[in-house]
Amino acid sequence: MWNGLRTRIIVSQCFPNGHTGGNQVKFTISPGRNPTGAMQAGPYTVTTEQPIGAKYYAIDEETSKDSFVALSGTIKNKLTVESYMTSKSTNYNLEVSPEHGIPENGYIEVNLPKDLEFTKNEVFSDTRDSLNKAQMTIFDQSKDRIIVKVLTEHKEENNPLRFSLLNIRNPRSYKPSKGFSIITLDTNKVRVDIGGQDINLVMNTMNFYPKFSLTPSDLTNGAINTYRVDFESKVFMLDGDILNLHFPPTVLLTD
Amino acid sequence: MLNKDQFAPGLMDLNKFQPSNFYARAPNVSYTIWVKPSHDLGTSARVVVTIPANIIFDKDKPCFIGGIPGATCEVT
What we know:
The structure holds 2 protein chains of 2 kinds. Chain A has strands at 8-12, 25-33, 45-52, 55-63, 73-81, 89-98, 106-111, 117-118, 124-126, 136-142, 145-150, 161-169, 181-185, 191-195, 211-216, 227-232. By secondary structure, chain A is mostly beta strands. In chain A, strands 5, 6, 7, 8, 9, 10, 11, 12, 13 and 14 form a 10-stranded mixed β-sheet that branches. Chain A has a two-stranded antiparallel sheet with strand order 3-4. In chain A, strands 15-16 form a two-stranded antiparallel ribbon. In chain A, strand 13 and strand 14 form a beta hairpin. Helices cover 0% and strands 41% of the residues of chain B. Chain B has no helices and 6 strands. Chain B has a two-stranded antiparallel ribbon. Chain B is globular and about 50 Å long. Chain B starts with 11 loop residues before the first strand and ends with a strand. Classes of the chains: A mainly beta, B mainly beta. Chains A and B meet through strand 1, strand 2, strand 3, strand 4 and strand 14 of A and strand 1, strand 2, strand 3, strand 4 and strand 5 of B. Strand 1 of chain A pairs antiparallel with strand 3 of chain B, so a sheet runs across the interface.
């Protein structure tokens, strides 16, 4: 039954020759906008009505259990990083193009791959320009995830939406970093578009040891030595990492 | 004694509801509906569709009806 709040479409002049009960009626109504997120659109009711005097009365009526489930769309992304040095804390500039825009007070959620994390409290900057007017602010953040609230609607024709994620620690090696996940959400945090798989981050500059020293125990030529190695690394190490030390050819290892 | 306000509607088969685009937030979507009313209808009969709560029709924009030549529609 109509609850007085939902939208009704009244189709008139649809039976110029009348209609015989039991026969199918097929029609199309437009233009509508699908649910704001990937969710069930909800039940619908169809009623046939016949006027008696000036008032219409229901002849047949039924309400469905549901109608259809809207699907998530995709997001195209472009990522540029201010420094491609391993393990360096730097800024990530993102251009995201969600297929279906983002509603006012919707959200963008960015999940970082396993080997990346935010290193400081300052994590977000929007980079608005004349085509990119959506106002954004941080809604929630953890070490590997940020949710940004979009305060003004971003329409798909204004793609891409640009913003920067600040102070992210780069991967510690040249191994490509996949696993970015970027999701747009409606005001009820239901998914609208999903992307991030198109980002493949690869470092191109090794970080360095700010301190490295190799001190022999005996400086006499030909002496058998113990070398003391001291170094500091800006790249964190994990169990199972291997340290390779290459000696010059004039230094020979004894058995 | 029954009066005309107390009659319950008859049966209606709702056979299918299909959007032209399944993606969330997609605009300008057409929704095709297949129904089978059980009773005969006169030439002045109309069909009222209460659309799913999560679908938006703009009441300020014209509504279009397809599949039934000459029919008109109105969003309320």
